[in-house]
């Protein structure tokens, strides 16, 4: 059995999957724990959002992840920092408008502080 505590790459993959699941399910309490207070998201249309802006949008339904299916998550680990990248298929309702299912590249930067990993930056690019 894999020990996630001694394998930080697998730990980061598990954290990223838990973060995605929390956002899809609207579990804002868990999502807040996994997003750094300094978190910034750059959306596929170039909008920049703080952690509070983003999580409020998810909580209120302004952003509703109908589905979010990540592919293989690549991890580059450098001490207390890591970069994760994956291709994902997502279906979103944004501002009450359903968007067609699409594929996206997700790049996420994580930092470890006080033994806990949190995402600090996320960048999304739609795949055409």
Q: How much helix, percentage-wise, in residues? A: 25-40%
Total count of domains: 1
Number of strands: 8
Low-confidence residue ranges: none
CATH class: Alpha Beta
Largest sheet report: 8 strands, mixed
CATH topology: Nuclear Transport Factor 2, Chain: A
Shape: globular
Along the chain, the helix and strand elements come as: HHEEHEEEEEE
Question: Beta-strand level of the residues, as a percent range?
Answer: over 45%
Overview of the structural elements:
The protein is an alpha+beta fold and 128 residues long. Helix 1 runs antiparallel to helix 2. The protein is built from three helices and eight strands. The chain has helices spanning 8-25, 28-34, 51-60; strands spanning 35-42, 48-50, 63-70, 74-78, 81-94, 97-98, 102-113, 116-127. Strands 1, 2, 3, 4, 5, 6, 7 and 8 form an eight-stranded mixed sheet that branches.
Summarize the structure.
This protein has 3 helices and 8 strands, in the order H-H-E-E-H-E-E-E-E-E-E.
Please give the structural blueprint.
Layout: H1 8-25, H2 28-34, E1 35-42, E2 48-50, H3 51-60, E3 63-70, E4 74-78, E5 81-94, E6 97-98, E7 102-113, E8 116-127
Parallel strand pairs: 1-8
Antiparallel strand pairs: 1-2, 3-5, 4-5, 5-6, 5-7, 7-8
Helix pairs in contact: 1-2
Question: Could you name the key traits of this structure?
Answer:
Nuclear Transport Factor 2, Chain: A, 50% strand, 128 residues, 3 helices, alpha+beta, eight-stranded mixed sheet, 27% helix
């Amino acid at each position: 059995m894999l020990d996630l505590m001694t394998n930080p790459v697998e730990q980061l993959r598990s954290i990223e999957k838990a973060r995605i699941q929390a956002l899809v399910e609207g579990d804002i309490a868990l999502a807040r724990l996994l997003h750094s207070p300094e978190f910034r998201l750059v959306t596929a249309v170039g909008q920049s959002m703080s952690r509070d802006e983003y999580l409020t949008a998810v909580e209120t339904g302004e952003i509703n992840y109908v589905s979010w299916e990540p592919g293989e998550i690549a991890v580059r680990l450098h001490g207390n920092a890591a970069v994760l990248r994956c291709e994902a298929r997502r279906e979103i309702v944004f501002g009450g408008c359903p968007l067609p299912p699409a594929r996206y590249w997700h790049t996420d930067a994580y930092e470890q502080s006080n033994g806990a990993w949190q995402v600090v930056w996320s960048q999304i690019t739609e795949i055409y």
